[in-house]
Amino acid sequence: MSDEATTPAKPVLRVVKGDLTPEELAALVAVVAARNAAAAHAASRTRKRPRSEWGHPARAHRTPLRVGPGQWRRSAWS
């Protein structure tokens, strides 16, 4: 058998004082879970995403025009 199966899990919450009913404990767990989910969602939204190169402003710059025969016509396609 593995050690994980025989070792009890460490509790996430522990009631130190008072006597909670099962309903009160369930409400406490729901509030803590909702707060953690909201914090995780906010943290994921603040992460920087890599910028798409498709709309990068540098793409608006054209290549330099070349001098020579027929280059004026080719400048529209480069």
TrEMBL record:
InterPro entries: ACC_epsilon. Residues 40-78 are annotated as: Disordered. One of its GO terms (molecular function) is propionyl-CoA carboxylase activity. This is Acyl-CoA carboxylase subunit epsilon.
